[in-house]
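retry 2 of 3: previous attempt timed out while embedding GL5. Reduced batch size to 1 and resubmitted. Inputs unchanged:
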Amino acid sequence: MGTYLATSYTIRDRLLQLWNDTQEYYKKEKVKQVCYISIEFLMGRFLQNAIINLNLEENYKKALAGMGYALEEIYEEELDPALGNGGLGRLAACFLDTLATHNYPAWGYGLRYNYGLFKQSIGTDGEQLEKTDIWLDKPYPFMVENHFIRIPIGFCGTVEDYVDPNTKETKEESNRSIWKPSEYVIAQANDILIPGYGTDNTNTLRLWSARAVEELDFEKFSFGDFKGASEQRLNAENLTNVLYPNDNEAEGKELRFKQQYFLVAATLYDIIRRLKEQKRPLEELPDFSAIQLNDTHPTLAIPELMRILVDQEMIEWDKAWEITQKTFSYTNHTILPEALERWPVKLITKLLPRHMQIIEMINWKFLEKNSQVGQNNKSKELRSKLSIIENSWDTLVRMAWLGCIGSHKVNGVSPIHSNIIKDQLFSHFSSIWPKKFVNVTNGVTPRRWLHACNPKLSDLITSTLESDDWIYDLSHLSKLREFADNEDFQLKWAAIKQYNKKKLQRFVKEQFGLDIGVHDVIYDVQIKRIHEYKRQLMNILSHVYNYLQIKKMTEEEKKQLEKKVVIIAGKAAPGYKAAKMIIKLINRVSKVINNDPEIGDLLKVIYIPNYSVTIAELLIPATDVSEHISTPGTEASGTSNMKFVLNGAITLGTYDGANLEIIENIGEENVFTFGIKASEVSQVKQNNIEKGAWNLMPKSLQGVLGIIEEGKFGDPEEFRMILQELKGVDRYILGNDFTSYLQAQKVINETWKNPEKWWKMSIIGCAGSGWASSDRTIKDYAETIWDIKPCPLPKIESNSQLN
Ligand code: GL5
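retry 2 succeeded.
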């Protein structure tokens, strides 16, 4: 730990200097900046990324080797902060890397949770166990508490009419009021410095943590009430204690709502403080900063900015609204109904009474303008579709509606997803504002997801292309196409895959005591949050089927088979019963298959617990086949699919999310596709409802369910819920896709027998992944939504001396 800390502090010192220079330069240049607000940032380990970005890896290796240390081992000592659930938080982290690399003036804003996403282990029964992730009990050198930035954030209280100090009159039409919060919590800034690759520009990720206004109540303390004396502190700190462990699901807890407001209130205060430092009026906010709302979690920023402009800055409502809409843009990351946040009006009124009034006013003005007031059914229907406030089991505020109305641009994250939001989810808004809805396809940073995690492949690409420009501009990878058929190149390419597989093989041996082969074995990997729509269940059921088939085979037939190691990893939200059952089933199946002597090394199923960014960095370079098999129309984009192709894995995928972009860019002949198209899903679902999914299910799957019900994998009662769902309505249409999924697996096995074809597909996949860089994504955002430009720091003497 000592060497790790010492190494990290030297990097931090260097970054602090660069960061100071960068911030000063941005101020001097008065450049427009982007502020990316996200409730999650899943950063992964920091040290290696920073050393690589600063181009200091060789120097550090040498210096440390001279003292008897290996840099790679030092990297391994770092913890992996888990301040995010999945793709949404990891995307935000990739964006920060790109923004710094391409010299964009940018800030990330999020929360510094005391406890990250829970640590997952697997119990003796195969079940998921959860433990608190107390990541802050170890020093974390890359986060700096900024004592100068402490902001009081109010909650609850009352709203009073605004009285003009001169005329002593209250004017209704000014829409102005005075909010008097009854509680305050302090937002403390903690800064993580974000280095770019091959540049001095160093940006900021500012994470807020909560502190009490009064750390200790002295009166209570001196009367011996020690518990009471710290009560306020504990209550306040509680606010940023925990990251809610849900992915693609809304969390209806009051504390979560408070976290969301805390994040946006502190952030807006900070942005406006910087604007005022430049002595610029608030009317200039849209020229000073673009603010991107990463999903609906930060959409309370819209009424908060209106409150600041109207109530505090005395700006007239319509002007304030214009500033607000011009400043914000909103990204939708999911269309799953359970993930679209809706907060009860009662709860908002209690915690943020003034904001509720503002939301109502925004809604009223919007409806006045955009729907007829008539009482006929059609106009009522339109109003209820457009209204931010929904009357269902309760009166609720639809946060996605607020995001759409309060932003000048709304984007989806892949073409199919953006079309769905434009034509279905938000069709009523897109007919009012056709130009507001745009697509910005996700991307991943090639620095972490190829250059750093797969150094051998990175070297091969650089030496083949005779340049490392691709690290900065991924479109250069297209030149690899020329080498896709080249035998010598293919051999080198394949050898690197073997090398990465060996690393994974060692990990599996150490962790599970399990021996798996490398050379003639297909590594088939599905790693992501466990969710019904992502269909890990279909994956495991297919291997139960394969297992049963193998058991029926003669020794001769077995010899013809390809060997396969199936790896699955991912966490389930602790409250998501079906997902937890799927994990249990995977582990039970794995136990039976891996211990069956008749199967030997023909098939192994491994569940890797506690999936993290670090584990992804180990698995992705070692994968032959990567599975992205969501029900069409459900996965907004997916980003791990991009990381895998980039590292030479071949996709086994459905026609969903960014799989479609992969297909388009590398050709369907280089992807193992199966299943139906999104446009066919509703018909299949309807058939399931009308005829019963069991009656439509292929015999192969019926047989698999039968074996589970016979108790082959333990008491079938433990899987009742997921089995019933499959036999009943099968919402994610596993039954319908099962046969073509098995067929795609057959094609994979056949292709594996032909190495030239296999490695050609693998190389073409990587060569055709230039579009998958987050550098391309950020350029799209910068040009079409944010209107910001790069602002590279001029090379400064003092900086170069540090090299
Ligand atoms: C997600 C979507 O489910 C992914 O398809 C998408 O790639 C990602 C980033 O846009 O956003 N939405 C979400 O809440 N999480 C995601 O991964 O966590």
